[in-house]
Specification:
Elements (H helix, E strand, L loop, with lengths): L1 E9 L4 H10 L7 E9 L2 E11 L2 H7 L3 H10 L3 E10 L10
Antiparallel strand pairs: 1-3, 1-4, 2-3
Helix pairs in contact: 1-3
Length: about 100
């Protein structure tokens, strides 16, 4: 498995709008096992995104999907910053295949 943890900072006051775009753009992504969008309680503009994929190739392929491209296009103006915190190799967990 392949995992990513990222922090996205929205333009001031646009966190909820950005989160809504991310949540609608993640449907039907082959190879995606988990995609979590979470607010950061200590920062009113930050979102944490945690992803688990079957492999890195599935993640890379997802970036060309029409739904993902649409979400990127709609979300880009609302993004003030993006940090890739970590790439991981998930071993398993609730909801993930053994």
């Amino acid at each position: 498995m392949y995992g990513l943890i990222g922090k996205m900072t929205a333009v001031e006051g646009q966190r909820d709008a950005l989160a809504a775009i991310l949540l609608t753009g993640l449907r039907d992504m082959p190879g995606n096992l988990s995609y979590i969008v979470a607010v950061a309680p200590e920062d009113p503009n930050a979102l944490w995104i945690t992803e688990v994929w079957t492999d890195a190739e599935a993640h890379k392929a997802s970036l060309s999907l029409p739904s993902v491209q649409d979400a990127i296009g709609r979300g880009r103006p609302l993004i003030a910053g993006l940090e890739r915190i970590a790439e991981t190799a998930p071993l398993g967990g609730v909801g993930l295949p053994k």
